Amino acid sequence: MSHAITPSGSGLNRVPRVTADFWLIKLMAVTMGETAADYLAVNLGLGLTTTSLLMAAVLVAVMALQLAQKRYVPWTYWSAVVLVSVVGTLITDNLVDNFGVALQTTAIVFSVMLAATFVWWYRSEGTLSIHAVTTNRREAFYWLAILLTFALGTAVGDLVAEVFGLGYLTTGVIFGAIIAAIAGAYYALRLDGIPTFWLVYILTRPLGASFGDLLSQPTEYGGMGLGTTYTSLVFLAVIVATVSYMSFTYRPEVVQAEHVS
């Protein structure tokens, strides 16, 4: 193992520490991404195409604000995550519903694209660490990977719940069990934190989406019939409360050096 200090690895980290509240709000954000996309496209009658264009425009505006911060600011960062969640869901929905691409194909394509992004990121920066996202290029790689995890997670979740016919609850339980197994292996076997983080990040998308669908979808489709409006508002309230807490307790994470193996 060699330790190297890189100039690009100094400064303020632009993404949050991975803590319990990080995973809580991430799970809420992915769940809301699923229900909010359905609410806009179906309940408000905007349709999939109009909803996609509208949310993509909002995402561009929010992402420009996020990239301008040059440090982690809870409300801009998590606003971007929620919007990326919605747009990632809509990308997969458009491919499947508007262009007739099979979910199996969509999952494979996004898996390849995500792997290629990680390879490109590592070859450019020498690390995939989320603890040293301190430059514009690293943050661009980070957000591209995040977008692809949401699109991939949507495809995988829908594939298991709908194509394989396991239903929302069973699908959620399966992905929850896989996440628990990965977390257990991380603590018990000391697995490397970077691949385990990204694996869990991908899998929380179908986990959250499955439970979002379980709560919001009509009972005849295997849901609990709470509706997308009520479900989205509940999760939005949790997100706002958690982000407010983060804003009051956050202390900047200064990256002085990074260790490259």
Query: For the residues shown, what is the average pLDDT?
Result: 85
Q: What percentage of residues falls in helices of 4 or more residues?
A: over 70%
Q: Please give the count of helices.
A: 8
Strand content: under 5%
Assembly classification: single chain
Q: How far is the N terminus from the C terminus?
A: 5 Å
Shape call: globular
Rounded radius of gyration (Å): 18 Å
- Weakly predicted, low-confidence segments: 1-9, 257-261
The helix/strand series, from N terminus to C terminus, equals EHHHHHHHHE
Q: Going across the major beta sheet, what is the strand order? A: 1-2
> Which secondary-structure class do the elements indicate?
mainly alpha
Largest sheet: 2 strands, antiparallel
Number of strand segments: 2
